[in-house]
Each structure stands twice: as structure tokens, then as C-alpha cells.
Amino acid sequence: MSAAAIARLLGRTVAVTLVESDAIGTVGVGEATIPTIRDFNRLLGIDEEAFVGKTQGSFKLGIEFVDWLRPGHRYIHPFGTLGRDTQTIRFSQLWLKLVQEKADAAEDALGAYSASAIAARLGRFGRPEANPNHPLSTLSYAFHFDAGLYARYLRTWSEARGVGRVEGRIVAVDRGGESGFVRGVRLEDGSTISGDLFLDCSGFRSLLLGETMGEPFVDWSHWLPCDRAIALPCASAGDLLPYTRSTADAAGWRWRIPLQHRTGNGYVYSSAHLGDDEAHRRLFDTLDGAPQGEPRQLRFRAGHRRNLWSGNVIGIGLAGGFLEPLESTSIHLIQTAISRLMLLFPDKSCAGPERVEFNRQSVLEYAQIRDFLILHYKATERRDTEFWQQCAAMTLPDSLRHKIDLFRSKGRLFRFQEELFSEDSWLAVLIGQGIMPAGHDAVADTLSAAELRAQMTGLRQALHRAVEALPRHADFIARCCAAPRSAVS
Ligand SMILES: Cc1cc2nc3c(=O)[nH]c(=O)nc-3n(C[C@H](O)[C@H](O)[C@H](O)COP(=O)(O)OP(=O)(O)OC[C@H]3O[C@@H](n4cnc5c(N)ncnc54)[C@H](O)[C@@H]3O)c2cc1C
């Protein structure tokens, strides 16, 4: 992704050499994305339908969270916007007033006001309408794809635009005496690749940023205790669902990601609370198709390198940090690191204030996403295992505590400093995880109960009608972006 973006934006003003090792390979997971990936693909000029076909992809309208609040409960965190604001009143306040004044709020569940959530429930898919007055203008989507195929796709794309790729394992790193800057990397065959700026995309090992530059790791595992995952794909079964499913379990959660040629599955768990064999069994027993290949075990820690840019080294992807995959944010973090680098591209000295600003923005972004993830673990009624009891007892970061307190009072939400997750995302997860504000904003009372009811019923019905007219997700894919037959194994 980095090589492709640099080739696209800086063209031949910068010579890019990508070093990677087939013997080491990639982490090999990461199949669910969020809507910002579409901006990245658009930047590269990638044809969306060809891309979905070539990566065995499917469309994602959000994430269904099952058993997170309590066993048997489910809700969707949808992409896109919820309801419609009036000129003076936010939709969230209208909805709060509605449900707070009504005994039976079942038909007014938040998801009934989201085009993406309704489409997910009905197994339908279509692209958003451009006309802002159309109910489907509020829908948004991302993709599920085979990350290995996406990387291969981007490699071909980049090589065609002048990126040089070197196959080989880096065994040593040369640094300049006084500055300590990295001057070159030495490969197993004895060759050296020198450069002015090094993007460390070496994965969890963090070869340049962590090992060479010695940037310490800021550990957040006391807030995000899951530190292992087992991934095991299985044969597709049932409808091709247009959403990711996350199911809470004894010591973590399981993911289910539907692709065209298979279903991706995994169990993310805390090794302090669950053994690997038991995690494997819990994953295996819940597969809805025949397993494909051997399970893969991954170890990680939640957190980030203190500075993501040190000297002339910038950590991108897992080399910079990792927040577990609950909200599919890692590929997005790669993308924002790249765009931040493009906006702050240094000269050869790397001595300007750009590095400081890059680090400031990166750390803030990590912390904001961290808070959103913690919310899922903390705000739950689950106390059935030691893992969930520990989550319930944890002390929150002040930033999250403040956000929850503000919401609990009158449902007020604010988005700070280009935060990734919108007020609607926070609303969906706060409500989904069982936090209902005590009141609502007085401004919502400017509408009478009858006016409000008529307005909200009309909105719900219009959304439902518009979504019902969309094709089924599987039919949309078959018509527009089916994978080439030879690629389906
Ligand atoms: C369990 C799990 C689930 C995930 N799910 C999602 C998800 O749903 N959505 C999402 O957005 N993200 C997800 N992620 C994160 C996602 O997988 C990564 O962000 C993404 O794959 C990018 O990884 P990377 O390129 O940083 O590292 P890697 O994929 O590990 O790539 C590292 C590269 O560096 C090369 N390399 C390493 N050492 C050397 C060396 N010595 N010499 C030469 N080359 C070297 C390797 O060959 C490889 O090409 C998940 C991660 C985990 C652990």
C-alpha cells in the first residue's frame, strides 16, 4: 500500500525499492475493512468491480455484534449515517426522545434508522445514491477481501508504475554514526540497499523502528487484554452475508468474514484466561463449513511504538503498532499513516517539525481507536467468566470515561480532531452495549410527540422501502464482480 501510494502521488520524483521476503511471508490475516479503503482505491484509480472480483471480495455494510451485551443479544454497528438530523436537532436526540417516551421501543431500534443496517439484515446490497435526499444516500460500505490477493494486486499495480521489488531477507542494518539514521539494509545474499527514508513495514517484528532505532513499545494490554488469535478459514455455507460477524465468547471473541471462495474465521482471546487448545476447540466447534487447511496461531500485544517516526524511519502497519481487529482498523491505520506521510513528506535531513507532527497525529489516532475498542469490552452485562469480570472491573482511560459520562447524561457526543469513528458509530456501539442516557437535549422537545412520531415513522418506512428494492448481495456480486472462475478453488 505504501509503495503504491508513493508511486501514485510522488511519481518518479522518488525512487521506491520494496524489500520483502517470501520465506518470511506476511501475517496472512486482515480480511475486513472500513469504508475509507474506498478512498485509497480511488486514489490509485482502481476499478472497484475488477478489484472485488480479483480479491475474492464481498461487500461489508458493518459489523454484527453477537452476545456482546449478554448472551442472546445482537446489534449492528453499521457504516453510513443514522437517521436524519433536522435543521436544528441531531438525529440522536430525536431518537432518544422517542425511545425515552415510549414503553415498547422494539420497532424503534436504532438499526431501523440505518440503511446499511437494514440492508445487512435483509442480505441486500447496493451502492449509495448520490442525491442527498434519497434514503440510500446514507448507506456506506467497505469490503471483505483476501488480503494476500490484495497485496498481490497492489504489487502488480506498483511494479507497473516504477516500484522496484527486491526479494530477500534483511539480515543487518547499517546506521550513520552521528545521526544514527539508517543508511542501508543488508540482505542475505550480501547486497545492500541504501536509501534516504526507510518505511518499516516488517510487521510485528518492527525490524527498523523497534529493533534498530530502539523505539519502546507503549503497551495497552491492561485495557485490551486479548493477545492471541487462531485463524481458520472454512468452506462457504449459507447466504453470502454483506457484513462481518463478531461473536463474544468466554475469553474474547470470534470473527466470521464471508468471502466469495471461503469464509474467514478466527478467535481472538486472552492467553491469561484461555488455553490455545481450548480456543482452537471453541473456534472449530462453531465453524459453519468444512475447515480449510491448518489453523494458524498469532501472538500480539495491543499498543504502539512510542514514536512512529524516529530519525529517518517510519513504522507503517504492524511495525508501528496494533490494536486488535475488533473494528477492522489496522488496514485503515496503514492508509492514514501513508496519507500523513504524504502531507508531511520530509527533505533528506528529516530534521524539520514534520516528524513531531506526524508522531502527534499518529499517537492521537491510536488512542482514539483504542478508546472505541475498550468500550466494547467495558460496557457489557457479561460477568460469566473471569475474563469478562476483569473487563468490567478495569479502570478506563480519562478520555473514554469523559465520553461515556457525557453520553450517559443527555446522549451528547462530539467528534474531536478528525477522529475516525463518527458520532453515529459511537451512538451505535454505546446503545448496542447497553448504555442508555438518562435524558435528552432540551432542543428535541421543540417537536411535539405527535410530530416526532410521524417524522420517525416516515423515515423508517422510507429507508425500509428503498432497501427492499436493492438486489440480494450474492446476486449483486454475481452480476458485477464475481471472481474469475479459475481463481475459485
Ligand atoms: C488476528 C489478526 C486479525 C486481523 N484482522 C484484520 C482485519 O480484519 N482488518 C484489518 O484492517 N486488519 C486486520 N489485521 C491487521 C492486518 O493483518 C495487518 O495490518 C496487515 O496485514 C498489514 O500487515 P503488515 O504489512 O504490517 O505486516 P506483515 O503482513 O507481517 O508483513 C511484513 C512484511 O515484511 C517482510 N519482512 C519482515 N521481516 C523481513 C526481513 N527480515 N527481511 C525482508 N522482509 C521482511 C515480510 O516478508 C512481509 O512482506 C489483523 C491482524 C491480526 C493479527
UniProtKB/TrEMBL annotation:
<keyword id="KW-0274">FAD</keyword>
<feature type="active site">
    <location>
        <position position="60"/>
    </location>
</feature>
<feature type="binding site">
    <location>
        <position position="60"/>
    </location>
    <ligand>
        <name>7-chloro-L-tryptophan</name>
    </ligand>
</feature>
<dbReference type="InterPro" id="IPR036188">
    <property type="entry name" value="FAD/NAD-bd_sf"/>
</dbReference>
<feature type="binding site">
    <location>
        <position position="318"/>
    </location>
    <ligand>
        <name>FAD</name>
    </ligand>
</feature>
<protein>
    <submittedName>
        <fullName>Tryptophan halogenase</fullName>
    </submittedName>
</protein>
<dbReference type="GO" id="GO:0000166">
    <property type="term" value="F:nucleotide binding"/>
</dbReference>
<feature type="binding site">
    <location>
        <position position="327"/>
    </location>
    <ligand>
        <name>L-tryptophan</name>
    </ligand>
</feature>
<dbReference type="InterPro" id="IPR050816">
    <property type="entry name" value="Flavin-dep_Halogenase_NPB"/>
</dbReference>
<dbReference type="GO" id="GO:0004497">
    <property type="term" value="F:monooxygenase activity"/>
</dbReference>
<dbReference type="InterPro" id="IPR006905">
    <property type="entry name" value="Flavin_halogenase"/>
</dbReference>
<feature type="binding site">
    <location>
        <position position="331"/>
    </location>
    <ligand>
        <name>FAD</name>
    </ligand>
</feature>
<keyword id="KW-0285">Flavoprotein</keyword>
<dbReference type="Pfam" id="PF04820">
    <property type="entry name" value="Trp_halogenase"/>
</dbReference>
<dbReference type="InterPro" id="IPR033856">
    <property type="entry name" value="Trp_halogen"/>
</dbReference>
<keyword id="KW-0547">Nucleotide-binding</keyword>
